Amino acid sequence: MNDVRTKRKKFMITMSVLFILTILTFIISLNLGVVKIAPIDVFKTLIGHGTIRDKLVLVDFRLPRMILSLLIGAALAVSGAMLQGVSKNELADPGILGINAGAGLAVILFIYFFQGSMNSVTTFGIFLMPLFALAGAVLAAFLIYILAWKKGIDPVRLILVGIGVNSGFGAAIVIFQLKMNPQDFMQAAVWLSGDIWGANWKFVSILAPLILLILPFAIYKAHVLNMLNLGDQVATGLGIRVEKERRLLLLMAVALAGFSVAAGGGIAFLGLTAPHIGRKLVGPRHQLLLPVTALLGALLLLAADAIGKNLLAPTEIPVGIVVAICSAPYFIYLLMKAK
Amino acid sequence: MVSLSTEQLKIGYGDKIIVEDLNLSITKGEITTIIGANGCGKSTILKTLARVHSAHSGVVYLDGKMIHKIPTKEIAKKMAVLPQSPEAPSGLTVYELISFGRSPHQTGFGRLTEKDRRVIQWALDVTSLSSFADQAVDALSGGQRQRAWIAMAIAQETDLLVLDEPTTYLDMAHQLEILQLLEKLNKEEGRTIVMVIHDLNHASRFSHHMVALRNGKLIKEGTAEDVMTSEVLKEVFQIDAEIVQDPRTKKPVCLSYDLLQKETQGKKQKAVSF
Fold this sequence. Notes:
The complex is a heterodimer. By secondary structure, chain A is mainly α.
């Protein structure tokens, strides 16, 4: 009986396949865009022998955006998986829990109060907006935690409060959006539907270390997530300090979601879809689930961004909408299968 | 020797006090069963013993030490807890579930050592689940699922097992199977077991020590012969029970019973009509 070993093998195969798919998508994405660049020219440019135009498009525009997609995809997916583990509910996701909406409201307020007076996106704005988004995400999470607290956190109450906070923030967003001038309204609408807009190297250099620091820590905490998934009583019986660990894991999930939202806007569904597919592939044990989910999230968002950029080129579809359009049928399929 | 004991325990939820002045002691190497009517505080007491619920006042001692002073992971090496009808996430295999029982003995990433694997295999064998190791827990039958959870608890390798209604929702044969497994663990490995079960005849047959509660108060404790009497059952369950000796096990069994309340209600009605 070597159940764990067969599972490990399956896990290794899954990871390898996902990794190869990601690399392939990455290479294809490099070639695609308003400006098509042949693979050989991509290669030349990357080793420093390309034309100036190719270098500009590839290194300054395309690469940072793709790397951000990978990072955000992985972060959102792992955040969703962690929230689902902590809340014992497979439908939890940063979008449903109001964390995205919190970040969204902060950004809307930012655009409403500051952007209008600055009339275009300044460097100052580019870096301030994600900070606002992050603050909004943390504030929303804090609010949900406080409101759901009643001598400890009951997962069901956490979800219900999250949904409530979500609609509250959603309403506030609409109020401010309706008062905006058309240009700001457009910017806000694109941001809210999820769009990797801050695509430059400075952004990557800020986000990459943050996300790449939290992801391994999340995987390190995988065994705690496993225990929490069995319910508070069993987890306590197995020696887990439930309240403390749950708070820590929630904080990590919120940070991951917050950073992602800051750079990628309100991308919904990814935190829901990726862990779901991950569970189908390797089961619910988080040591296997989290790495697979991270890779899946990265792959899905990279692919979605490539589709969004090229499907109706030169008009871009926000990546969040592509993710939503692709995820919705998957969920309807799941619902139909579950009767 | 005393494994687990309580001193002046007062437990409740919010302002509602459920248990007061409870002094219990669980002897090492014995099977102790708590019996009582629904809502009498049995589960609450088990939760408090298992440090899942905290008491308003009073102390629980584990091996002579105050339980709230011991790090929770240390407790998990001495006491395994199985709540009422636990749920496993869908798709989790039996082997994985049992492997979680090893977590108090692990550090870091939770990789299984050779010893962990041996213990898991032993837990699989003892619970006759070896051929189900690769199957998902949520796809098993009720009896198999309960065995899988018990396997997880015993893989924790603790001297003490605290089980809340391990036989509920099982048919007669499967109930007996679980209880015989627990008896075997107690006899062959000397594990101390504290549990709540509803079937009085099972409690009588399998426990060394029985504790009868009513409204959070200890009514009677002692051997099955001490507790399984019609006087005690009258007080604890408000039933008029016919107690006889089981010809096979020589333990007292409740052969038949009636509700006491009906009689009194009948009398009351008569009184009114007069």
